[in-house]
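GlsB/YeaQ/YmgE family stress response membrane protein, Aquipseudomonas campi. Tokens?
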Amino acid sequence: MSLILFLLIGAIAGWIAGKLLRGGGFGLIGNLVVGIVGAVIGGHLFSYLGVSAGGGLIGSLVTAVIGALVLLFIVGLIKKV
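Tokens:
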């Protein structure tokens, strides 16, 4: 996957996760960071569970969004404490 495509998927995944959990995005850089870290978390989580989101762009986006949602959920729990 090219770097540009990786960054684009990360930004979109971060934006979607921000809309679903927080009700708004985090700006371009924030969405990018949340999406990229979420993609790493989602990839590890899916491989640990033995689940595959499918290949290609849609599978990568689904994995990144789920990972970003997990990341934002954990950050939300930590911020409340």
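The radius of gyration is 12 Å.
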